[in-house]
Amino acid sequence: MRTGHGEDSAGENRIMEKIRVTSRESLRTSVVFVIVLFIIFGLSTGFTRFNPVAALLSQGEFWNFILADFVPPSMGRPGSLFRAALQTMYMALAATGISTVLSLLLSFLGTASITRSRAVNSLVRAFASILRNIPPLVWAFILVAAFGIGTVVGVLSLVIATTGALTRFFIEILDEAAAETLEPLLAAGAAMPAIIAQALLPAAMPGFIAWILYCVELNIRSSTILGMVGAGGIGLLLMGYIKQFNYAAASTAILAVALIIIGVNLLTDYLRKQIMN
After folding, report:
1. How many Å apart are CA 176 and CA 127, to the nearest integer?
2. Inter-residue contact 107 to 177 (CB < 8 Å)
3. 134-159: per-residue pLDDT in tens?
4. Sites in the chain below the pLDDT cut of 50
5. Angle, vertex CA 141, rays to CA 136 and CA 142, nearest 5
6. How far out from the chain centre does Cα 274 lie?
7. CA distance linking residue 128 with residue 105, whole number of Å
8. In this structure, are residues 235 and 227 in contact, taking their beta carbons and an 8 Å threshold?
9. DSSP character for 22?
10. What does the pLDDT look like over 24-56, one tens digit per residue?
């Protein structure tokens, strides 16, 4: 009997060795994190005077409004909806294309391995950080005051923000590619233009395309919001329906936005997988 008990204990020990049990330190850290999170939540709700209980109890009014005014959706003017959706997609694609060219040029200046001037590198990186850290909506408000309502405002707002983001991403990709290929090629006597064209860009291209596809997806979402402040596209049409209290038509526009974003998301995910493979 003792031998059997010993064998059972040894078997349990082997099982426990295979299964990674959470350490006490990790468990303690998790508990502290949850407690701190609840404290921050309590302080935030107190500071903002947000009452979660009242918000949950008022859900009935929200759903009554949705079911009474937004359902069922109404097509309204299908031609206008279709043109606005196309305009939104064109804005996102145009802004991403322009930003890609600008970001590629700036990334060459911001990469230390290509442009060996710390002042230029720092200036480009700081410029890109400023552009990408200011939301496109802020740029849209500024540009609407300068140019008025229209798709030009939407495209320019997206170009500014996307250029900042892509420049930062491209610099990081080029730095990684340069760390692997630059020094051996320079030691072999290759010229920098040839290295960029034949080594750095081919190595960085999959990463470039992945980030460009991500920005297309992101810009379609952003262009909808920008349209609501006068930048054109389906967002402008949606805001017009809401101001006219035509909530059924606004519901159709919202569904169209959701379908466009889901479709673009599926397409970009597929293309990214094909590129990465």
Report:
1. 21
2. no
3. 888 888 888 888 887 778 888 898 99
4. 1-2
5. 95
6. 20
7. 12
8. yes
9. P
10. 777 888 889 999 999 998 888 888 888 777 777
pLDDT at position 73 = 76
- Of 252, 169, 264, whose CA–CA distance to 222 is shortest? 264
Distances (CA, A) of 211 to 45, 46, 80, 111, 167: 36, 40, 32, 17, 10
Give the Å distances, CA to CA, from 267 to 93, 224, 271: 14, 19, 6
Which residue carries 């849209």 as its tokens? 140
pTM metric for this prediction: 0.74
CA dist., res. 164 & res. 160, Å (int): 7
Q: Do residues 248 and 69 make contact, with C-beta atoms less than 8 angstroms apart?
A: yes
- Other Cβ atoms within 10 Å of 165 Cβ, number: 20
Position 35 scores a pLDDT of 93
What own/partner pairs with CB < 8 Å and gap ≥ 24 does 191-195 have? 192/114
The beta-strand segments (E) located in the chain are: none
**Which tokens is 86 given?**
């196309």
Q: What are 276's two structure tokens?
A: 């990465």
- Count of all residues that appear for the chain in the document: 277
Written as six digits, the tokens of 95 are 């802004």
> What is the spatial distance between Cα 238 and Cα 59, in angstroms, rounded to a whole number?
24
Q: What is the C-alpha separation between 96 and 91, in angstroms, rounded?
A: 8
State phi, psi for 245 to the nearest 5 degrees.
Answer: 60, 25
Tokens of 225: 């919001």
